[in-house]
Design a protein that fits this description.
Radius of gyration: 23 Å
CATH architecture of the largest domain: 2-Layer Sandwich
Largest sheet: 15 strands, mixed
Number of helices: 17
Shape: globular
Number of strands: 17
Strand content: 15-25%
Distance between the termini: 47 Å
Number of domains: 3
Helix content: 40-55%
Strand order of the largest sheet: 4-3-2-5-6-8-1-9-16-15-14-10-11-12-17
Length: about 475
């Protein structure tokens, strides 16, 4: 028997490798939308025996789509209400000199109705955002929904824990959702602390290094706080002390968040309740979560939820549509900037058409590999008419896009494949000149303290450095 095994094991091992590689290749060919992705995964499966197929099983298969489709359908607006809202939205957009058919394009991409009568307020860093959020939690009467990728148990996190516990004890319906990977950024883990204090909390796709490890690459990167269904906060800010610049923490972070009131809050609320239902099976509904909302401002807005399920590439397509429909300017701020070929080409075409294109990035990244890949990518992005500005520390985590000083998009998504294809994200698009001009002024402030990146600076890097950055860039879809 031993001799037989010695004779047969190479054949069996080869057969197993072929079966695994064949299975991975067939799955990639049938499911991958991009030809390059299918070729890359199939090639890895065949050229890296066992390892390639295992990596594909862990990182290449989207297992969430089928489960996402089981979520309850959204409550639809009455037909007469929808007609009235769309008429007001079209009139508002047309008054700004834009083709009202853009409403149809935005709705077709996002799947969300455009709402009117909203008020949107930018909040700069945790110094402004956290006090506003804590005040809202303290005044909550019926419901609180909080979703965060990172919820550290530090000088900022303990304030939120205390406020959430107090709200829960006075009878407010509190639900807290933290990403299963982001929950591990600090000890003790905040979900555990909240659970010990009786606050309903759940972790999105938890179980890293367990049988659920295949989900480690599909994270809930959204940042949402809803209070009584009447006020929402969203943007790019995690709950951690580094966001409060006055605390002088070890790793300070500049960031931007937004307070929203008006009909748009119902769309933000729906994203949270769907994520909560997906994670726990509990349906959050009724007046406590979805009260009637009237107009409170002049912003027209819609949410753009995105994820590796039915919402696939909605933010990506919205960005492309915004660049292609820009008339005068495209301004972008992002902490991680790794656009694919289509986005880069769209920026180049906008610049060739005479539109001002400005990209504002941190000069010093907080993730070394990503920063190396970004540097290599910028050599392909830089072109006549495109200005790249590098802001000094502290690290700038701002995620913002302003087009023509009229349309803005903000939220949790970065300009990289992880955000645009792998993570669950939430952005908000709004058309309102006063809001856009205020955010233009914020970007002007960043540029005033930044330095322009010159092409010569990228070309003058030593060959080993350029090779290092270029090699890391090859893995940019997974950074």
């Amino acid at each position: 028997m031993t001799d037989l095994l010695r004779t047969l094991w190479p054949i069996l091992a080869t057969a197993l490798w072929i079966a695994m590689a064949l299975a991975a290749s067939v799955h990639a060919i049938l499911t991958k939308r991009e030809v390059r992705a299918a070729i890359g995964w199939a090639g890895l499966a065949w050229l890296s025996p066992y390892v390639g197929a295992i990596l594909y099983a862990l990182f290449g298969i989207n297992r969430i789509q089928r489960r996402a489709q089981t979520l309850r359908p959204r409550p639809e607006l009455a037909e007469e209400t929808r007609t009235a809202v769309l008429a007001r939205a079209r009139a508002a957009v047309q008054s700004l000199g834009y083709d009202p058919n853009l409403i149809r394009l935005g709705g077709a991409i996002s799947g969300e109705e455009l709402t009117v009568g909203n008020y949107i307020e930018p909040l700069v860093s945790g110094d402004e955002a956290f006090p506003a959020m804590l005040e809202a939690i303290g005044q909550a009467e019926r419901s609180i929904g909080l979703c965060s990728y990172i919820f550290d148990h530090d000088r900022a996190g303990v304030r939120f824990v205390a406020a959430l516990e107090a709200a829960h004890r006075r009878g407010v319906d509190v639900r807290v959702l933290v990403d299963g990977v982001g929950a591990r950024y600090s000890k003790p883990r905040t979900p555990k602390v909240l659970r010990q204090r009786g606050v309903p909390v759940a972790e999105f796709l938890s179980g890293l290094f367990t049988v659920r490890m295949p989900y480690m690459n599909l994270r809930n990167h959204r940042k949402i706080l809803t209070v009584d269904g009447r006020m929402a906060f969203t943007g790019g800010m995690n709950i951690r002390e580094g966001c409060i610049l006055e605390l002088d923490s070890d790793h300070p972070i500049q960031d931007l968040h937004f307070r929203l009131t008006g009909p748009i809050v119902a769309q933000v609320q729906e994203v949270f309740t769907r994520d909560w239902h997906f994670t726990t099976g509990e349906v959050l509904d009724g007046e406590a979560w979805y009260p009637k909302l009237g107009p409170v401002g002049e912003c027209v807005a819609r949410t753009v939820p995105d994820g590796p399920d039915d919402d696939f590439e909605k933010i990506y397509e919205t960005i492309l549509a915004a660049i292609n429909n820009a008339r005068e300017s495209v301004r972008i701020a992002s902490p991680y900037f790794l656009p694919d070929e289509a986005l880069t080409r769209a920026l180049h075409l906008a610049a060739k058409a005479g539109k001002r294109v400005e990209i504002i990035l941190p000069a010093v990244g907080n993730l070394r590999l990503v920063h190396w890949a970004m540097t290599a990518e910028l050599a392909h992005v830089l072109a006549p008419g495109i200005d790249v500005w590098l802001t000094p520390p502290p690290f700038d985590h701002t995620k913002l896009m302003v087009v023509d000083s009229l349309w803005v998009m903000f939220g949790s998504a970065n300009w990289d494949a992880r955000s645009l294809r792998l993570n669950f994200e939430l952005n908000v698009g709004s058309m309102n000149p006063p809001l856009a001009q205020r955010l233009d002024a914020l970007l002007d402030e960043k540029i005033a303290s930044a330095r322009r990146l010159e092409p010569q600076e990228l070309r003058s890097r030593r060959l080993p450095v350029r090779l290092r950055d270029g090699a890391v860039r090859l893995f940019s879809p997974y950074l």
